[in-house]
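> tool_call: predict_assembly(chains=two)
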Amino acid sequence: MKMKKILALTCAAAMTFSLMACGGSTKETAATETTENTDTAAEAAEETEAPAEEAPAEEAPAQEEANADLSGSISMAGSTSMEKLANAVAESFMAKYPGVTVTAEFTGSSAGIEAVTAGSVDIGNSSRALKDEEKAAGVVENIVAIDGIAVVVDPANTVKDLTKDQLISIYKGEIKNWSELGGEDAPIVVVGREAGSGTRGAFEELLKIEDACAYASELDSTGAVIAKVASTPGAIGYVSLDAIDDSVVAVSLEGVEATPENIKAGNYFLSRPFVMATKGEISEQSEAVQALFEYLASDEGKEVIAGVGLINVD
Amino acid sequence: MENQQTFSIIGNRRNKSAVEKAAQGIFTLCAFIAILAVVSITVYMVINGTPALFSVGIKEILLGTSWKPTAAEPSYGILYVILTSIVGTTLAVLLGVPIGLLTAVFLAETAPKKLAAVVKPAVELLAGIPSVIYGLLGLMILNPLMYKLELALFKDSETHQFTGGANLLSAVIVLAIMILPTVINISESAIRAVPASLKSASLALGASEIQTIFKVIIPAAKSGIITAIVLGVGRAIGEAMAITLVSGSSVNMPLPFNSVRFLTTAIVAEMGYASGVHRQVLFTIGLVLFVFIMIINISLTGILKKGDKNHE
């Protein structure tokens, strides 16, 4: 009798211990599973509720089959600034077309274009427009997205427009007071991003002030830059265009306001095209590469592009 | 007697030894988890932190002053970062320890009971506040105040770069407040542990209350107070979240009104997008920090051992 009790107690203790050890993870898995289930349930409900959409619903399996049939591989190389975009596109594209493998290397724009010219990769990623001699070598410039950067100041700042030279001087630390720019007599607090940030890379590259900036603050996220600029009188910072909110004011550059329309029209200088260059027209490429460009032009692809903070091209 | 024994789980010798053995096994297992963690962290830091030292050069990293990890010709000098951590921690300790120690004296010796009942829980609460909250308060309250001071001080300066209040001084103040609970709690217990006979003897010899505190009690509690300081240093040097928000995070010489970057914030700030050698150097910074913490811990163990000997 006693024996049994002890045995039971030891067992119970051991079980409690092992349960405690894996309790956390088990719970998590269970939770995710439930959410997934609800998601599917919701989707199912939506499908049944929309009988009008039967036709596309019937088409979907056929489409899926086609997706599964498409196989092959796509290799990309090039711009480090396009790392986020390339990875996001590769991931979602491979999820849609399980038979295709997309590999991306980040070696720099020029290296990417060289690689595509030499035919060693299918797509050369470039975060600048192609040069004439590159185009002459038979490489086609396919602009898939535009990267726009806004220069922001605190709402109380009276300076609403800056020229390119003024912006360069501010970030190099040559202009230190807003009064030199026609504003109030207040020092300029230069806020930027940390080394390695894509936004910082683009900003410095476009102004040709790579590693020549005198930052008073190097913050590690877009949100932090906005918060700092909003709370510091006389601060100036740069962020992705899509990140701006009401707490800061985006200044116009050379008289051009930072809007997606102006950027698309090419009037706003703090922007750059993201090019996925191919050797020859897209129609001359492999099926998989063609599918990738179709995907980028689709609504789904545009969502992915917007998801990484870029502007879509029409 | 019979009845009682049925309720006991340890009925006879054999069962007893089984339970003891099982318990022993569980305890050993738990202890090994901690050891495993320490050993794997040490090995990991050394493996990841050393390659950059050889590929870039020990001198270039540890004694270089230019931090341009993404330039065309990158330079990875972290001297200013190391100095910032040392200077920042030292200043925070110089500021925090006197306040903490005197608070501990107050709590242990001179406080009226009612007042102590308010101060004590407040200190304990301070210890429980997450560091990011300190950082947020520093960002919202301390930085604007510091910016006003900065504007007043450097009004006519041609060369000063305005930081908007995010500077070494802000970080030091935040760190000093953060180490207060550690310093207060440990020195208070040290002071309370001083034998009452010492105090009575001092008072009986005609020394005043204040003389007794500074000449008898604090010297007697010395080893405990040093432990408190060392632990405070450890907390200050390892803190990242709070100061990343208030220090400005640019690599500069550690002067009070400069925007500075600490060892911890250097890692936090750039780990996200760093790659290649840049990433390796960040691990090297981690290794440097790890070595600092190790030195602090070893000296702490030394102090504690010495203290034990003194008691014997």
